[in-house]
Specification:
The chain is mainly α. 50% of the residues lie in helices and 0% in strands. It has 2 helices and no strands. The protein has one domain (3-29, 38-75).
């Protein structure tokens, strides 16, 4: 067995209880009936209420607004100072 694989295996064994506890604390909902009602934003109306009428308007303003909403509500952001270095 490779030394690095052995080290990784040892870390996983040691972290086992912590991982199980973290997994137990996650509240997951698989039942759509429990989801609160929501309305998706109109993709052709900007945040300020302006109607998007051209591809240029979409590209220059609305696209960025929707990407930001998607980042905030779907992907999420990593907090600063969490000890994780980019690129790893």
């Amino acid at each position: 067995m490779n030394v690095s694989l052995l080290a990784i295996s040892a870390l996983l064994v040691a972290a086992g209880p912590c991982l199980r506890q973290a997994k137990a604390q996650v509240d997951v909902n698989y039942d759509e009936a429990k989801v609160h009602p929501y309305t998706l934003p109109d993709p052709l109306v900007a945040n300020d209420g302006t109607k998007i009428t051209s591809a240029a308007q979409w590209r220059d303003s609305r696209r960025e607004e929707l990407l930001k909403l998607f980042e905030e509500h779907v992907y999420g952001r990593r907090g600063l100072g969490d000890g994780v270095r980019p690129g790893l």
